[in-house]
Amino acid sequence: MTEWDIKKLQILRTLRDRGTVTATAEALLMTPSAVSQQLTNLAKQLGVRLLEAQGRRVRLTDAAHLVLRHAEAVFAQLERADAELDGYLRGEAGQLRVAAFSTAVPALVVPAVRQLRTAHPGLDIRVREAEAAEAYELLTAGEVDLALSLAAHAPSVRDPKFSRVPLLADPLDVALPAGHPLADAPGLRLADLAAEPWIFGGSGPWSEITTAACEAAGFVPEQAHSASGWTAILAMVEAGMGIALVPRMASAERRGGAGVVMRVLSADQPRRHVVAAVRRGAEEGPAVARVLAALRQAAAARETVQQN
Predict the structure, then answer these.
(1) Does one domain contain both 130 and 160?
(2) Which end of the chain, C or N, has fewer beta carbons within 10 A?
(3) 153 and 189 fall within a common domain
(4) What is the Cα–Cα distance from 200 to 225, expressed in whole angstroms?
């Protein structure tokens, strides 16, 4: 295969544009003899004559023009590569992979991706739904660059492998059947619901969150039914089979029918805390920093909506 030397091709292109070896040497801060030597070597590498004498000057041969026609495409591609690399270094291009638990995807990740696609279209965000255990395995293995989880299931702040970034304190509301005696009760507290049958997962994060919230309010919840999806949970609440705690961040998923009343708890309202984590030191990378900023912006917007 013919050897193509980019530096020598740039000298040939400059000669075409400047017209003389002397002008080419001045433009490239070289000596005329160095220009001539480089072009002679290029001709040997390509196996064709590139220059021919024309009085005291030289002119490019047809072969030289053919070479430059193809070289221009190479130069254009290198310019695009330089621009893309520059964007990558500024955090405006490249790919970044995010793992997030189910309710965080529509509530935080999707708004962040929308904002980034407008502001930095060269930044390609790839999203993978994963609960905490899997998300941190992926982060440790380098298969994702950022993980969203509940703080209770994130690595310790003392873990040297990760840096944690707080994002959101998400309130938990209670779902009651429409005809429940406490559906319209003023100042409803979690402790008022101690004798109720509860619906939550048999194990995993949501089971732990529900039991921890109830225990903090002074009672152990009686689990009447077990479910992990909001559709199933709210269908059972609507049917009067029990009550459930529902994260406000899951508003897109928690819409029950007319038979479900969502109540904001007073005084002892539980919250779950959402954090982002990256491999320690990665938060200083420009692309990661842009994604974290977009996630914080999405979280702030959600908190503003929740307060209104």
Answers:
(1) yes
(2) N
(3) no
(4) 7
| Three-state SS letters, 239-298 | CCCCEEEEEHHHCCCCCCCCCEEEECCCCCCCEEEEEEEEECCHHHCHHHHHHHHHHHHH
3-state DSSP assignment of residue 33: helix
Kindly tell me if the per-residue pLDDT of 252 is higher than 80. Answer: no
pLDDT at 86: 61
How far is CA 63 from each of CA 30, 76, 137, 230, rounded to the nearest angstrom? 24, 20, 57, 71
If we measure between CA atoms, which residue out of 108, 262, 235, 96 comes closest to residue 172? 262
Summarize pLDDT for 65-116 with one digit per residue, the tens. 999 998 888 887 876 766 566 656 666 668 899 999 988 999 999 999 999 9
| Burial profile 12-44: b = 16 or more Cβ within 10 angstroms, e = fewer | bbbbeeeeebeebbeebebeeeebbebbeebbe
Q: Which of 40-44, 84-88, 124-128 has the lowest mean pLDDT?
A: 84-88
Chain segment 203-238, per-residue pLDDT in tens: 667 788 899 999 999 999 999 999 988 888 999 999
Number of Cβ within a 10 Å radius of residue 245: 23
Q: Which residue has the tokens 């529900």?
A: 210
Those residues whose C-beta lies under 8 Å from the C-beta of residue 125, and which sit 6 or more positions away, are 95, 96, 97, 98, 112, 113, 116, 117, 291
Q: State whether 124 and 162 are in the same domain.
A: yes
- The answer, yes or no, to whether residue 156 has pLDDT greater than 60, is yes
Residue type, 225: H
Q: Residue 53 sits in which domain range?
A: 6-72
Considering its fold, how many domains does the chain have in total? 3
